[in-house]
Amino acid sequence: MSEQRVWLITGATSGFGRAIAEAALAAGDVVVAAARRPEALDDLVAAHPDRVRAVALDVTDQAAAAGAVAEAVLWHGRVDVLVNNAGRGLVGAVEETSDRELREQMELHFFGPAALVRAVLPHMRRQGSGAIVQMSSMGGRMSFAGVGAYSASKHALEGLTVALAQEVAAFGVRTLIVEPGSFRTSFAGTGALAQAAEMPEYADLVGPVRRNLPDSDGRQPGDPAKAAAAILAALDAAETPLRLPLGNDAVDAIEASLARDRADAATWEKVSRSTDFED
């Protein structure tokens, strides 16, 4: 697109959020960068004072989310791209995960983004254009032992977005679900990754996940800047894909999961088709 776009990006201080903000600015666009600590964006604002606004936002506060959208529209007259990026990982077996921890994941990765989508859609429908980018994970298509709560929240976000895509296409609004693998962001960094209370029964299965994720910090194969470029390319394509896996590990894992699903479907097809009434 040649026209200057207005982006609203959550979790913009680091990782994918920061990389997407920088890519949008490099494309000549305007960015409303939302974060719990907007002062961490001072350098970005100083570098682009006429095209960056930093706003304080906890996406789990639905009223604040609606306010952030309203302010962006008040300042710039429109929001062209919403990027729901804010998030946090949680390691723990399902039995180890408390109801509070599970709800916190859903508030952050599902209810918060849903509130922002509802807030931005009236403006995008009125414009007759727009894009909603949902930062999911390869764990939004499958899951792994030790990250069930995180994956469940991303599965929920993807399920909502598949329906959303069908509902808003007629208004000129595109949707993009991004499914990254392991990228060199702060996701697994010290203090960033939440840990459920450990049970000895799961030490052999979940213990390696607890150790390996933090140990991978700074050594992940994925480049956030390249991810951001891929996202912009997908948004600028003649036909934006519904889902965009990013990283060799994500592509390999998703393809393997799809192959297992196809094999199960073929093995059990006769049984699956035998359950209708005879008439």
From TrEMBL:
The keyword Transcription does not apply. Keywords: Oxidoreductase. It comes from the Bacteria. The keyword Lipid metabolism does not apply. InterPro entries: NAD(P)-bd_dom_sf (IPR036291), Sc_DH/Rdtase_CS (IPR020904), SDR_fam (IPR002347), SDR_oxidoreductase (IPR051911). One of its GO terms (molecular function) is oxidoreductase activity. PANTHER family: SHORT CHAIN DEHYDROGENASE (PTHR43976), SHORT-CHAIN DEHYDROGENASE_REDUCTASE FAMILY PROTEIN (PTHR43976:SF16). NCBIfam families: PRK06180.1 (NF004824), PRK08263.1 (NF006114). Belongs to the short-chain dehydrogenases/reductases (SDR) family. This is SDR family NAD(P)-dependent oxidoreductase.
